[in-house]
């Protein structure tokens, strides 16, 4: 080579040597992928076969599986979907005529821990694919996987493959707060549909809170009558039934939460007498944080020392368990704020007689927990009920057999505290799984936003900032630091969208694709076969999955410029950026 | 009564906001006298990192008009894609766009420009150069330095990057052919966009990119500097832009970058406007005290994409033991800029009265690495509304006190009305 070309070749060499390591560390990507990535996906010689225009799915008859089958059949026959990176596969014959669904046991209901394992086989040389599923709910998981192997118009499907799949964690959910801002039923259904597509199986519906009470209860009509945002912003019994049925048809459990005794300011519109510190200013000017009356604007805690409280509460619980058949009932119990109860004369008297606020909470729990349990429910509480620094109950009054804890604070530390106390635990650590973080705060008149330019913006006003990116969520190990026995008590996780600054206009983009990140981490994990974190490999698969979700009507937000998936590896960083 | 047709549009918008109810009614017994504090009130949208259909642009312009914003700064091209179809340079979009369904034809541009005029919104095109031009290499590899290279080599310090983010490529000022293409692009862009402002970009010229090019290496070996290379580029393009009866707008980097910049003397303030994005009011002051009219887009306040992590893949920073310090969450300009932060920003802070006169106004900016049509509305609204009021009538009350508290409920109402008009603005509070 002459010296004139040397620099060019040297650059070329440098370029290749920078790019080559990227290629060698990436496994050869599969032509088409399923999100979440299946536990086992064998596709030795990838190719495709056409989907027959008369393709059918044969399946046993089941009240909820049959509508699912019909739904998937319709979706598959009208796919017309082009992946961002269209698979370049040989198309062979014969076309796929039938997917035969076999369910080992049709009887299990949709409950926590139901078997969701399936095996999907699309052979190379016959016209029949088979889905063998443990339960109807497992069949739904397999149908979803099948639907993601179909693309193009006329439709074709990957062939010569075997998928064996089952989840790592049994509880994989999304919390949606429909109290701070309202979401019409259509939005809830779209959310549940998208959850099902991500193999998420628990919709934790945080229905009520201090700001509004949108649940229409026949036994307590005034609660929504006076406490909802308005007649067009309430859920009737029919609405709830629709949501529950839709959930069943999609393999998604609906777990209701009626948060109590805190977060009940909205109950005071109907029953001012049972709510302490209702309609007061949440944090007096100049007062220290410890003297606040609520964690955020909107005061009101149920008063455990007023007998009438339990008349109302029992009606609410009873009817909620009637509306929601799931065996889990979430009773809240987070963020009991001393200042609120201390503002009440009856409670002040109790305190003056050497009582404590923790005792007041205990009275409440003792008067409600057994009742919930008597209705054949497992009660879920937020961690605060036994972990709060100030107001908490003795764990001895909450039996681990009938109580599940949900953690939102302190990352894996609090998970450890809960499981080592023997409680099954759902993980929603705010440092990772709170989807609303990193959006400033919503209070008005906040002078913190008026500082000289150049001030340290820190978290930008969001208590739990910064924004939790999909990579952060994906990489979170919810059993970090737990021993094997403790880890067994971790049921799974839930990402949470608190709605102070969210409503239908942003529902899809706030949740997707970040909930997809958790969905895969909890279904098949966040590591590859060698035990290394695999978010790099997941990136293009997630961009493809976003594209498919968007084609199905879910307005998931993009994670990268389109250029990135077009130029594999080029948007990676080989140096950590933070 | 309006001074001009454009003023009439502002008045019509105000009138429309005084109507409500079913059947409709209108407030009465009132007089409004209104005029803006700042004359340049804009939104920047990047349609290169991700594509936005024409309908999205029209909806954006319509919403801008409703907020009395009057400038759509269209950052059309960048390294990732070149969606602008030019008759004189058809290969640029043919090869550099994301695809045939992700283009802006001349008809599309005409539609956008007309729509803007009907809404009192100017359309200012930006064809970023010489940096941010990786997409040009699909058609013209010979004129783009460091195209299609990995942006930041493993283990290399930040100073040795080839680009500020994935997607490399800078036009090569030492190749004559470059100017053949550039002139065609500039000429046709000015034909498509009649506004008197033409944005020439000139931000983020990265040493590592030009240094990767043999021709430029030769130049450097002969005691040339990269700043001189930039100067050659500016000297060969700026006068041409002016000759087409345009005022050139550049990003502050062209004279303020720490490494590669040109002497202000070659950019006369009469024909050049600067746009600042860095270091808040400090750089505004540097620009106006050098005599330039300035548009403010300080990233600390006005960048709407901040606070959303970063978009690179394989970033091991996201995999640390729990309770690590999350800092800005990966976003270089984090945290998220809330509406209150934007509202309260005083773009003439620290300037003398004379200097302040040179501040034309401000633009919020949505860079699209992690945005596209699904999130366009919620990323921009209502935060651009916060800028809109601060630029139109200020952020203080009659006593000179900041009034964002009072603005809160008014903004809630405005969000509600925008949503009713089909703009998916996000909520700022619980109902």
What general outline of chain B do the C-alpha atoms trace? globular
Chain pair forming the biggest interface: A-B, 96 and 88 residues
- Classify the oligomer: heterodimer
| Residue windows where pLDDT falls under 50 for at least 5 positions of chain A | 1-26
Number of helices of chain B: 16
Mean pLDDT score of chain A: 94
Give me the secondary-structure category of chain A: alpha/beta
Strand order of the largest sheet of chain B: 3-4-5-8-9-10-11-12
Enumerate how many helices of chain A there are, as a single number.
Answer: 19
Distance between the termini of chain B: 37 Å
Described by strand count, sense and barrel closure, the largest sheet of chain A is: 8 strands, mixed
Q: Which ranges of chain B are low-confidence, i.e. pLDDT below 50, for 5 or more consecutive residues?
A: none
Please state the overall shape of chain A, judged from the principal axes of the Cα atoms: globular
Helix/strand class of chain B? alpha/beta
The Cα radius of gyration of chain B reads 22 Å
The number of E-state strands of chain A comes to 18
GO molecular function (chain A): beta-N-acetylhexosaminidase activity
Catalytic activity (chain A): Hydrolysis of terminal non-reducing N-acetyl-D-hexosamine residues in N-acetyl-beta-D-hexosaminides
Domain Beta-hexosaminidase eukaryotic type N-terminal (chain A): 34-149
Keywords (chain A): Glycoprotein, Glycosidase, Hydrolase, Signal
Please provide a written account of the structure.
The complex is a heterodimer of chains A (578) and B (431). Chain A is built from 19 helices and 18 strands. Chain A is globular and about 85 Å long. An 8-stranded mixed beta sheet of chain A has the order 1-8-4-5-3-2-7-6. The relative contact order of chain A is 0.11. With 578 residues, chain A is α/β, with parallel strands linked by helices. In chain A, α12 links the parallel β16 (403-407) and β17. Helix content of chain A is 33%, strand content 17%. Chain A has helices spanning 6-25, 65-77, 136-147, 185-197, 221-227, 237-249, 307-323, 338-342, 345-352, 357-374, 384-387, 411-420, 430-433, 470-475, 484-488, 507-511, 514-523, 535-551, 562-566, and strands at 40-42, 47-58, 96-103, 118-122, 128-133, 150-151, 156-159, 161-165, 171-177, 202-208, 253-260, 275-276, 301-302, 328-332, 378-382, 403-407, 424-427, 490-497. Chain B has 431 residues and is α/β, with parallel strands linked by helices. Chain B is built from 16 helices and 12 strands. Chain B has helices at 5-16, 54-66, 90-96, 106-118, 176-192, 207-211, 214-221, 226-243, 253-256, 280-289, 299-302, 339-344, 353-357, 376-380, 383-392, 404-420, and strands at residues 19-20, 25-26, 40-46, 71-77, 122-129, 144-145, 170-171, 197-201, 247-251, 272-276, 293-296, 359-366. In chain B, the strands form 3 sheets. Chain B has an 8-stranded parallel β-barrel with strand order 3-4-5-8-9-10-11-12, surrounded by 5 helices. In chain B, α2 (54-66) runs parallel beside α4 (106-118) and α5 packs parallel to α8 (226-243). Chain B is globular, with a radius of gyration of 22 Å.
